[in-house]
Amino acid sequence: VWRDLRMKLFIDPDRMQTLYGESPAWLRELMDAWADGLNYFLFTHPEVEARVLQRFEPWMALTFSEGSIGGDMERPSLSALEEFYGSQIGAAQSASRPASRSTRSAAAADPDRRADFTPEPSGSNGFAIAPSNTTDGNALLLINPHTSFYFRAETHMVSEEGLNAYGAVTWGQFFIYQGFNETSGWMHTSTGADAIDEYAYEIVEREDGVYYFYGDEERRMEEREIRVPYRTATGMGEYVFTAYYSHEGPIVRMDGGDWVAVKLMNDPLNALTQSYTRTKARNLEEFLEIMELHTNSSNNTVFADAEGNIAYLHANFVPVRDTRFDWSRPVDGSDPATAWQGVHGVRESPIVINPPGGWIQNTNNWPYTAAGVDDPASPRQEDFPPYMDRYRENARGLHALRVLEGKTDFDLQGLIDAAYDSFLPAFADMVPALLTAYDGLAADDPIRDRLADPVELLRGWDFRFGVESVPTAVAIFWGNRLRAMLGEDPDRDPNAARLEALVEATDQLARDFGDWRTPWGEINRFQRLTGDIVQPFDDSEPSIPVGFTPSTWGSLAAYGQRTFNDTKRIYGTRGNSFVAVVEFGDSLRARAITAGGQSGDPSSPHFDDQAERYASGDLRPVYFYRSDVEAHAQRQYAPGDPQ
Questions:
Q1: What confidence tens digit (pLDDT) does each residue in 633-642 have?
Q2: Please, what is the average pLDDT of the chain?
Q3: How do beta strands 588-594 and 116-117 pair?
Q4: Is 435 exposed, middle or buried (0-12, 13-18, 19+ CB in 10 A)?
């Protein structure tokens, strides 16, 4: 209920239908075709049971137009939303009320169902290499989104009207989100730019409504009726909410006695236009022109083209604000000085184009090392307001600098090697402190003998992961335990915690796998058993060893894992999901891989036919040109052909 209410605070079907009618003819035709295709599929596949929508309408394409996994509108807290609007649900309806968030949380706390998450920051990697740093004199691009597995499909979209784009598409959208056409490519990484603000209001309740102050005047909160259907044991019910809006946006929570509104980019028509038209941009100049729509609010872009250009383009929707205010907190909504003053232009934001060093990187880190620490082309933090980026450097960013700096002989395989480099910079920093703590123990301290073997193993480690690596397993179990300890008690002695965490880590490895000297690949696995999005992992079923680690430790090839139920092994659920490397020359060359396989049908040969290659980073050729596709085609199909 609360998730649906949050969505409807921003997405009004009547508004979307109006925007559809106002769309240019070419975009309406695309939306019509999108809906027709989905409806035709449902009509011709009666065995497919639609969970929610039985029929799609063209305007619905405008409701998810920007492409990110979690759109900006998902930022408001559901629990805070429930606290604010929950009183509008009458007591008489409470018996049929669906399970609350707290009820679901209690169920999730059941020890038999609890998931053990390995810390994993969200995000992706994008590298662009200039012709000066490649063996063939062509620009190269790494496209490496880190998302939930099976969330984005690998797709090649071709039309007779000029579209020829390849890459990853997000469910429900008709544009390539991260990908390339014949002469240019784009990779989006999550941004640290602040594109969302909260406004706090002291309100006055009167008989005719709720009022708030703005400057020297009182304004009445706008009220909108929002209907949220929900499922009951006997059918469907419906809640009717009165939602409140200031001139800045919907009220989403309370802060003390103040009502808090949220303001964010909500321009679906231009967002859909930008998301689609950039897939047809032929070069950097055209891509920059499309960015003038300013609707890519949650992402940075790493770009390359066949003309030899490479670029880092910061978040495309950053409001201009008065820097006297702390925009990391709710600001005073009654003060007109807190109003947005337009958006920063593309060249007013951190930007790097064709740096002298010949490469660009972003790993969801700050933009200030995009072209290297010492490259004058990298933006300078002091040149921008604090709200321009709130991220810092991360372990993957440090790793990217290591594999890119000073290398001038990149080709496609060299770029793959960089993307899958096995060094773990976090442990290069953490392990020496552990060794110092151990070496400082008294000669008769019992911990010295207890940890002698694992310490010596880590002392000789080169900080590289691998399926046969025992130090990788020891380090990751130790690192996870150490983070948990220091998180629970930040004031505890760090040296004592380092040693105690290693004791507990080796004990857990011995308990779960029979020997603390268990290779990482025996623990870290890829498994796909069913077509479900959330897999029912099972230690007794076949699985594949994976060497990659969570990006927490600086692994560029990120592999976020978790244990399920009673499993001892840990299974990947997110991270490297689609990976592509692209060379833009006289003709395009590319290689790619998708987690598991392209099909969600376990009976299909393409359900897990990429799993082994995925686990080893063995990218396959991309058949981009029609002649290549036809030469390797197993079957050709057009709508209306017999199945």
A1: 998 888 778 7
A2: 91
A3: unpaired
A4: middle
Would you say residue 550 lies in a domain? no
Q: Six-digit token pair at 160? A: 């007779």
In Å, what is the CA distance from 9 to each residue of 247, 249, 359?
Answer: 14, 9, 42
Per-residue three-class SS string for 453-486: HHHHHHHCCCCECCCCCHHHHHHHHHHHHHHHHH
300 found inside a domain:
no
Largest CA distance in the chain: 82
Task: Judge contact between 169 and 215, C-beta under 8 A.
Answer: no
Residues 6+ positions from 400 with CB-CB distance below 8 Å: 125, 127, 361, 363, 556
In a domain, 625, yes or no: no
Q: Where in 31-138 does DSSP place strands (E)?
A: 116-117, 125-129
This prediction has a pTM of: 0.93
* Predicted confidence (pLDDT) per residue in 109-165, tens digit: 322 222 233 344 456 999 999 999 999 999 999 999 998 888 788 999 999 888 999
Per the structure, the complete domain to which residue 443 belongs is given by 425-522
Which neighbouring-strand residues pair with 33?
none
- Whether residue 420 is contained in a domain is answered as no
Structural domain count, the chain = 1
Q: In the numeric block, which tokens belong to residue 532?
A: 């479900």
Question: pLDDT band for position 67 (50/70/90)?
Answer: low
29: CB partners within 8 A, 6+ apart:
none
